[in-house]
Amino acid sequence: MSFFQAIQTTLRTQQQPLTAGLRRGFATNIGSVSTTAAALKLKSGQTFQGQSFGSQQSTFGEAVFTTSLVGYPESMTDPSYTGQILVFTQPLIGNYGVPGQIQDQYGLSKYFESDKIQVQGIVVNDYATHYSHWTAVESLGEWCKRHDVPAISGVDTRAITQLLRDQGSTLAQLAVGDDAASTTTTAFPDPNTENLVAKVSTKVPLHYNPQGDVKIAVIDCGVKQNILRCLTERGAQVTVLPWNYDFNQAKDQFDGLFISNGPGSPSTCTETVQHLRTAIDHWNKPIFGICMGNLLLGMAAGLDVYKLPFGNRGHNQPALHVDTGLCYITSQNHGYALQDKVMPKGWKKMFVNANDGSNEGIQHESKPIFSVQFHPEAKGGPQDTEYLFDNFLGHVRAMKSASYNTAADQQQQQQHASAFA
Ligand SMILES: NC(=O)CC[C@H](N)C(=O)O
């Protein structure tokens, strides 16, 4: 043990008391750190020993890394992370604590992207036991414990990230307590063989903003709260529907269709892809998809999907808009991508990743149907591409008023004709 590690261990072993706020109006806490051992064990054979600061429960998942500097409450509650052990490349995590579960005026969660922690576990280099923020109500460790989610600190996340980058996202165990020391070889279950979308999708329709002027059907593959907020705060009425709901049966009830983000492999969502195939030809109203929505829409259009070696997760991913050449900095969290070398007839690429050339979006050439691989709703991350919600709802409103006018014109013509019959 190095001198630095020895000092760190000594400091952490001394249970530090709660203190009052350092600054007026800011929740602040110098919490205690458990000295329970924890280890991140990769299926590829490498083990990283550290300390637990979350649940005492060991867990399995796919180890992936994110380069985001902030936004751990949002990332950890994003349903797209279901089944994954999240490694933060940002070394200091936990310093602004965790906010409370508060609802906005639409009944949507204000600070979290769903109602619980969705990641299997988290891996951080330096867990900040002292947190301070005006929205904070508890520490990251307390939050993880309450949700029974394991967390490890004191490991070299740079070395782990280099491994995940070189060998690709890897199945792993986050082992706590006795499991951390155990050398028994375990089987590493692969979450991507399961239909994770079915696990996180709503079971019943949910309604938001009933006063909205246009009605949007949201196919819930694991929708983030801020996507719903981006629609409702722009005046849309939103109905969230289960992932396998056949929206084609209810198309007259809606003015537009949205396909959400979601966890796991898109190949488990064959029913949604089939419904989308019908919708592309017959829906005749705008369709917009994000992340999993891009993958599913692309599959419905005839594209293949492949798994990226380590995915793109972070808040600084450059996406080039093909038509204008403009580059947007985007928020991302995905492991799969569309194979877009040859685009199906009637479709074109909309965005391309400026780092690795992977697909970032597709667009129908003659219908208002488009989707993006990145997250224009951000939370966390830059909001530069939030304008896509304006574009989508702009199309929805234009088509609604055009069809209304057509219907009204037709009715007037009929009345006119019958008056002279
Ligand atoms: N954020 C998402 O929707 C992720 C989509 C898919 N689960 C992937 O990893 O590629």
From TrEMBL:
GO biological process, one term: glutamine metabolic process
Catalytic reaction annotation: hydrogencarbonate + L-glutamine + 2 ATP + H2O = carbamoyl phosphate + L-glutamate + 2 ADP + phosphate + 2 H(+); L-glutamine + H2O = L-glutamate + NH4(+)
UniProt keyword list: Amino-acid biosynthesis, ATP-binding, Glutamine amidotransferase, Ligase, Nucleotide-binding
Any single GO CC term annotated in Swiss-Prot or TrEMBL for this entry: cytoplasm
Carbamoyl-phosphate synthase small subunit N-terminal domain boundaries: 36-175
EC number(s) per entry: 6.3.5.5
Catalytic class of the enzyme: ligase
Pfam hit, one: CPSase_sm_chain
Keyword Ribonucleoprotein in record: no
Taxonomic superkingdom: Eukaryota
GO MF annotation, one: carbamoyl-phosphate synthase (glutamine-hydrolyzing) activity
Protein's pathway: Amino-acid biosynthesis; L-arginine biosynthesis; carbamoyl phosphate from bicarbonate: step 1/1
Subunit: Heterodimer composed of 2 chains; the small (or glutamine) chain promotes the hydrolysis of glutamine to ammonia, which is used by the large (or ammonia) chain to synthesize carbamoyl phosphate.
Protein family: Belongs to the CarA family.
Protein name (Swiss-Prot/TrEMBL): Carbamoyl phosphate synthase arginine-specific small chain
Chain's gene name: ABSGL_12153.1 scaffold 12710
